[in-house]
Amino acid sequence: MSKSIRPLIRPPQLKQGDVVGVVAPAGPVDKDQLETGLEVIRAMGFEPRLGRHIYARSRFMAGCDKDRAQDLMDMFRDPDVQAIFCARGGYGANRILPHLKPGTIRANAKVVVGSSDITLLLHFLVQNCGLIAFHGPMVAGSFGRAEMKQSQRQFKALLTGSAKGRVFQAPRAKVFSQGVAQGKLTGGCLTLLCRSLGTPYEINTRNRILLIEDVNEPLYRVDGMLWQLKNAGMFKGVRGIIFGEMVNCRSQRQGEGTLADILTDLFPNPGFPILTHCPIGHGKEVWTLPLETSATLDSKAKTLELKHCGVKR
Q1: Is 213 an active-site residue?
Q2: Annotation says 282 is catalytic
Q3: Global pTM?
Q4: Which CATH number goes with the domain that contains 126?
C-alpha cells in the first residue's frame, strides 16, 4: 500500500469568480442533469469549464481511460482552473489511476470533489499525491438530481474556507454506539473500499474516523462487504464510524433484518462511536468532507466538527 506523502498539501481556498473544471472520470454523463448542476455551480459564484470529453461514452464509461485521465490532468495543468468538480460517479475511476501523474498533481494542488465511484480517485490523491481531497456532492450526480440547498451552502462555505463549513449536524441520524472520538477522516463508498483491498490504493483506516456509504445494494451484499472489511482488518484501530443513509440498501425478503442487525453482529462491543443514517455520499443532502483532516465525532450529539476546512486560506 502506498504511503501518504507528508506533509499533506491543503489546496488553495476558492473565491468568487474562480474557474472550476468539471470532468467525468467514471460513468457517462446525462446532459440535462449536468446542465442543472452547472447552474447551481454558477449560482455559487464559480465559472465552470468542461473537460473536452465530458459527454463521451465508451460502453459503461465516459470515454476511454486515457481520455478521461487526460481531462483530469489537463485541469490540473491549466493555471486558470482553481478546482476540479466531478460530474458523477458510476464506474471507471479505478481504470484511470495508472494514467495519472502524481508529481504534476502535487505541483498543481487544487480542490477536487467527488464521491461514489470517485472514492478511489480521492484516495489516490491523498495517498499517492499527498493532496487533501474532498468527499462530497457531484455536479450532475448530486446537484443535478436534487435541490440540496443545505448541501450547497455547506459546500461553498467549506471550499471558500468559512468557519461555518466546519461543523456538521445530523439530527435525523441514528446512534448505534455512543461516544466521542478524534481522528482523521477517511473512507467513502463501501463497494469501492472493498475494491481497494489488496491493491496499491488500499485505504489506511487506523486511527481514523471511517466514512461508509453506498446505494442500491441488497442488504446481504452490504453485510458481505462489511465482513470483508472486517476480515481484512480494516476496523482495527478505527476511532469511529459514520454510516451514510445507505439509500435503497434494503432486505430482499421478509426476515432478512436491518442494517442495525448487521452492525450488531459486526460490532458486539464496538468501543468507539458509531453513527448511522448521515448525509454522506448519496441522498437528498450530502456533506462535503475533506479526507485526512482531523475531526471530532460526537455520536450522542450527532455532530462532526473539523479542525479546519481542508483548504489553505
Answers
A1: yes
A2: yes
A3: 0.95
A4: 3.40.50.10740
